[in-house]
Recover the amino acids of this structure.
């Protein structure tokens, strides 16, 4: 294991005093945090306070050299520690020791439905970031999956606010236990990439509080040290300096004591940045040299322009002190904490963590006639598809990585194949032959001279006598797929993959489709294909995780964190015209587009339930190589009051022949209410391991909050007395039993 020890700023105290009794309070980490912060703040000049609230390089901000207060170094991203870039450019710095382990994308983490995996993820990532001396890691992302066209959905945790809330906190805790601040993003309503800088969102308060804020609040309640503002606008104010969202909700209502960091280029106005809650400004020009090498960063909105306003008497220093205080608090929680653990990089433990998370997050969507796992007697396996070989850790935007290694699905399948088995690969289709992002290249030559018809003909011919055909396709990290700064054009698979799949289904009855994506895709061939696996972007250990599931070394236990709709018509955001997505341009000469979240609280399965539409695969769906029988759900009481909890017991039995894990989901229904409410809402879940024939009682408790809706008129959560129903379910579309209870 590689480790590194970095000298904490507190160790320089000897430059201030000859003995410990004379150490300045801010350098003495035995003193209370707030006392240290106030002591440091009181020693700083106005110019020094201004300096620490804006960047001095692409990913760094200054400390206070005179006082021995260190710099702040940030880094993308949510799935791995991004390589070093040049001082003032996005291109690579050319280091040879900044490769990382790529962990599965956050859609995969959410699909584990396992908070233990979330903590492991944050801890492992935090160790790598700590090794590289990063104080802030720009992640995780918890924006809600409003439309399957959002190019950045793969970085987030799905469509349900409860699931995202439960999964985000262990990630934050695991990361920060390593002395690296989580930067939870993008706060808030950043639910599309198209026109992301210019879209002004209109949303009712109930929808805001019930759907789009819970995961952020959970992260704040869980102790997140930083939050990143979003690019878009709400109420005609950019969300990186939005009075209501940052001051009134985040800081006043929720009591957030950390740092609000702008997204890179998300700041637009000095006076709004001063008054509307932004604390630390990054990336206001993509090229910080635009105003001259000597003063580029001093020209940021919260730099010299802010200082001039103070010196001219146009603004005071109250807001400045609050911003500087928050940044100091961040520094003392990270680089000035002498008890920070040592970091480690590229360790066997980190690769094992990436593989385990991938194993638990892969979702078996369909397995007709038990086609999977691949029989040990299979001697000839044909793998078809570009995604079987294409590196997926490069590209997709700011989450792009430079990895030490990435095992492809093809290589994973070959490595796991029994002795004597032949694994052959053919192209099948041509997708994205590029392999570069910000100077990191895959080194792969994916050029192809043959026509689409020739590629399909080759695949079909070889499929005819194969024991298994495994098609590995889906999306990739190219523009207009799963990629930052662009949305998908439609729900369908790109590159005419449907034609390849249809042809293979006719040629071989043992066809397995492995969809690699961070988004739902249309599946017009779903009835013809016997086995379908949702594999996500799995990072460095992608090939091993996919092979583990296909060969049955791991019994799949992941479940979908989003609905797979049959068409865009079955998605709430796509039923109200352009005003709901992607927004309508104003005719006032500005570049602003207005967008209204017309579907309100009806996102994902809530919309499907309301409209009684049948998705291809529902939220929470996922199969296993064994079977589970649910007994009748029972409650420990028939009645509860607002101060009570109620505990439900669901007996679950493994009725198959192999050990497995089942995710038991609890949904709550309020059948009679004075306001319109969803048919049901997820309010609890538990992942349970069962040996063949074993039965366990799964217990899930809920309190009043699980029964409540947000009343905008009173700005309060309300649970109306009356009868409720609790549903034990294997997915949002598979309710196994129901119990009634009453709130008095």
């Amino acid at each position: 294991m590689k480790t590194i020890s970095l000298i904490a700023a507190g160790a320089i105290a000897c430059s201030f005093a000859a003995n410990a009794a004379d150490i300045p309070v801010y350098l003495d980490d035995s003193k209370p945090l707030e006392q240290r912060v106030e002591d440091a703040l009181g020693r700083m000049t106005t110019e020094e306070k201004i300096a620490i609230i804006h960047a001095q390089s692409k990913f760094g901000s200054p400390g206070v050299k005179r006082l021995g207060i260190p710099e702040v170094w940030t880094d993308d991203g949510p799935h791995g520690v991004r390589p070093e870039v040049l001082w003032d450019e996005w291109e690579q710095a050319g280091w040879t020791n900044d490769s990382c382990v790529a962990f599965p994308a956050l859609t995969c983490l959410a699909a584990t439905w396992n908070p233990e995996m979330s903590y492991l993820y944050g801890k492992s990532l935090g160790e790598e970031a700590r090794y590289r001396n990063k104080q802030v890691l720009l992640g995780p992302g918890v924006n809600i999956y409003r439309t399957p066209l959002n190019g950045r959905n793969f970085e987030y945790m799905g469509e349900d606010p409860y699931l995202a809330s439960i999964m985000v906190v262990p990630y934050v805790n695991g990361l920060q236990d390593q002395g690296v601040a989580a930067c939870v993003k993008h706060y808030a309503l950043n639910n599309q990439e198209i026109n992301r800088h210019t879209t002004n969102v209109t949303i009712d308060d109930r929808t805001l509080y019930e759907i789009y804020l819970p995961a952020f609040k959970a992260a704040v309640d869980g102790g997140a040290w930083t939050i990143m503002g979003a690019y878009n606008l709400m109420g005609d104010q950019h969300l990186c300096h939005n009075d209501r969202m940052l001051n009134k909700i985040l800081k006043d209502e929720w009591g957030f004591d950390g740092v609000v960091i702008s997204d890179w280029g998300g700041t637009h106005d000095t006076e709004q940045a001063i008054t509307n809650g932004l604390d630390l400004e990054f990336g206001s020009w993509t090229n910080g040299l635009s105003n001259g090498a000597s003063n580029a960063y001093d020209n940021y909105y919260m730099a010299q322009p802010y200082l001039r306003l103070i010196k001219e008497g146009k603004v005071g220093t109250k807001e400045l002190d609050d911003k500087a205080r928050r940044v100091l608090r961040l520094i003392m929680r990270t680089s000035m904490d002498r008890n920070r653990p040592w970091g480690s990089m590229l360790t066997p433990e980190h690769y094992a963590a990436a593989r385990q998370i991938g194993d638990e997050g892969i979702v078996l969507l369909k397995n007709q006639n038990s086609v999977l796992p691949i029989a040990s007697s299979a001697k000839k396996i044909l793998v078809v598809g570009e995604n079987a070989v294409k590196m997926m850790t490069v590209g997709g935007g700011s989450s792009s990585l430079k990895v030490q290694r990435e095992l492809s699905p093809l290589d994973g399948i070959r490595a796991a194949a029994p002795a004597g088995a032949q694994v052959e690969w053919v192209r099948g289709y041509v997708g994205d032959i590029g392999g570069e992002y910000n100077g990191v290249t895959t080194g792969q030559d994916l050029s192809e001279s043959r026509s689409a018809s020739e590629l399909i003909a080759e695949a079909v011919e070889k499929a005819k006598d194969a024991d298994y055909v495994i098609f590995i396709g889906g999306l990739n990290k190219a523009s207009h797929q799963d990629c930052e700064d662009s949305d998908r054009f439609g729900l369908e698979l790109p590159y005419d993959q449907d034609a390849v799949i249809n042809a293979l289904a006719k040629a071989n009855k043992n066809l397995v489709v492995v969809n690699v994506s961070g988004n739902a895709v249309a599946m017009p061939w779903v009835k013809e294909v016997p086995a379908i696996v949702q594999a996500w972007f799995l990072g460095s250990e992608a090939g091993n995780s996919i092979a583990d599931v296909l060969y049955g070394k791991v019994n799949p236990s992941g479940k979908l964190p989003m609905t797979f709709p049959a068409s865009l018509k079955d998605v709430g955001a796509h039923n109200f015209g352009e005003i709901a997505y992607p927004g309508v341009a104003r005719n006032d000469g500005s570049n602003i587009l207005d967008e209204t979240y017309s579907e309100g609280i009806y996102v994902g399965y809530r919309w499907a339930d309301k409209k009684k539409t049948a998705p291809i695969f529902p939220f929470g769906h996922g199969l296993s190589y064994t079977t589970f029988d649910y007994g009748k759900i029972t409650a420990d009481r028939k009645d509860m009051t607002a101060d009570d909890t109620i505990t439900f017991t669901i007996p679950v039995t493994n009725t198959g022949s192999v050990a497995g894990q089942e995710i038991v989901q609890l949904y709550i229904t309020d059948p009679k209410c004075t306001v319109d409410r969803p048919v049901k809402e997820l309010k609890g879940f538990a992942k349970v391991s069962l040996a063949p024939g074993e039965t366990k009682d799964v217990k899930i408790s809920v309190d009043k909050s699980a029964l409540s809706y947000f009343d905008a008129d009173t700005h309060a959560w309300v649970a109306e007395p009356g009868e409720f129903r609790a549903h034990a379910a294997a997915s949002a579309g598979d309710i196994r039993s129901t119990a009634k209870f009453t709130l008095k």
User: Anything to note?
Assistant: The radius of gyration is 26 Å. Residues 91 and 438 are 5 Å apart (CA to CA). Residues 115-131 form the longest helix (17 residues).
